[in-house]
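Protein modeling request. Please complete all fields; requests missing the sequence field cannot be processed.
Requester role: graduate student
Desired output: 3D structure, token encoding
Chains: 1
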Amino acid sequence: MNQLYLEEQLKKIIESDSWMMQILKIVSDLKLNDCWIGAGFVRNKIWDVKHGKTRSKLNDIDVIYYDKSNITKEFEKSLENKLINIAPHLNWSVKNQARMHLRNGHKPYANCYEAITFWPETATSIAIKQNINNQIEYIAPYGLHDLFNLLIVPTPKFDLTIFNDRIIKKAWKEKWNKLEIKITSN
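Delivered output (186 residues):
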């Protein structure tokens, strides 16, 4: 499957899910700089589709944005509260990627694209948004191949010990039995 085909599939799957489109619209209306929803929001949807399942329960909805002008946790919390007021039934997580390098012990990230290169798995390092024309855009530093081929592969920048612990804790193979875990050396 080539990248263009996978891109079309991703957009088709997301656009056909009215629940996801509603959430993307809510986040888009915040009008945050370089703002995306990523991780399990995208990954779990594709894995569910590939396994013929209905929606899996999400731990949270990971909203990321990039704004150097205000890197306080308090501002992130105020955004979470705003989202809770709009959709209280959802567990929102909002993180400014202009701040996350401090928590992670990295040099500052240039934008959300660079920030998600440090996320644990290639299939998790994907984020989507609804643009001003109500179209789906995505960022995927490692492409979409692993996501659609049900491969769990650590990103080159992530610690393998933490990756292995995460695989055990998440128990993804129990939820999605077609997944294949590929351990590579960093």
